[in-house]
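Inputs:
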Amino acid sequence: MNTSRILYCHCAYAQVVPKEVKELVLKRLCAAGVAFEAVADLCEMSARRDPALKRLTEGGTLKIAACYPRAVKWLFEAAQAPLPAHGAEILNMRVQPADEVTEALLRPGLEPNLPAGKATRPSAAELPKTEVAA
Amino acid sequence: MTLKEQVTLRVVLYEGEGSQPLAAADQFAALTALLEKGFAVTRTGATGRVAPADRSPLLVLGSFSQGKAIQAEDASGTVPVRFADITGWDVARIVQTVESVREETQAARQGDWKPWFPVIDYDRCTNCMQCLSFCLFGVYGVSAEQKIQVQQNDNCKTNCPACSRVCPEAAIMFPKYKAGPINGDEVSDADLQREKMKVDISALLGGDVYSLLRQRSEKAKSRFSKERDSDKALNERKKCLVKLVEGGDIPPEVLMSLPSPEEIQRRAQEAMAKAQAALAGRAG
Ligand code: SF4
Ligand code: SF4
């Protein structure tokens, strides 16, 4: 059973998350019959220091469908509602397909992926050819 | 802009004891419409958990058996809880009801502003204060511990990512920006090299932005005094701003809303002084 709470961000005030991805993810969550939290726009909540962010981080592990993990981590921090360091898995609807996002949201278990520390990816020239292409 | 006093309405799409299940398509339609209007919705389900209650007013929507909403109340008596039986309602009626409960409970209105503001990655930030000395709109400030902070996020100019370009560590994100690493994507070595070059604002804009504006302003002033032609002075400023647009991806409308060159100079000096004081405070 999935014990992590699910949070879905609709990214309502910009077109940065592809519409078809967020729609499909939301549809599948509705069809799956699971409990989840849906918010209009995490960016707006963070900008307004919305106390609801605190409620969303409380009570155990969390899976979040939104955008880049680094952005999501610091949006929560900016609102003084830090995500649990080893208790959050962020799915990126800007780049991951809807199937992959939904599968990760609904599967049992958690793969925490909150970035930590000053990680810098090697530049393209230093990567093996196959990775560069991806 | 911050929600210090006001709360937001929490809408609950309820399925469980005392209610009939809602069709998935209806749930999707209702959720989409409410999210587009800026509401936060908790959807209960047969499995899974939802976030705990807080002091937000609650509006519980459901298809309640016999058209009668379940009875419940907040034990502490501090959280307003309302119920609505939405059996047979269309989406417009649901949204209208939620909106009127929001007004009644004096919960905050969402979505009036495109949330465009810088978000600092403190894993990368070295507290160098370049962003503070660069920003003319007072978005940045320092905490009591002399740590850089985004303090006035609604002063930020929509779609302008200029300050992220001056950060030597690529620590400033705008999550709604189109490309990485500004959108929060991982930072690569190549990005860092690029950002390092751009620390020198002159490299970014083909000349120090402030001195460029100053020079233009002086020229404009001398011409102004000779010709007494305020339109010319304005055109001069516009020309200068166009040049800045060509140098970076700063939207023209942002540059057009820049204050006068004199005011820019004043604000730049003020920001610089603030940054220097913060740096001196940390060193001391
Ligand atoms: S957190 Fe990401 S997905 Fe959510 S509103 Fe902000 S940019 Fe959009
Ligand atoms: S310019 Fe970048 S590294 Fe320097 S204080 Fe601002 S965010 Fe931090």
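The two ends of chain A are 33 Å apart (CA to CA). Flag for discussion at group meeting.
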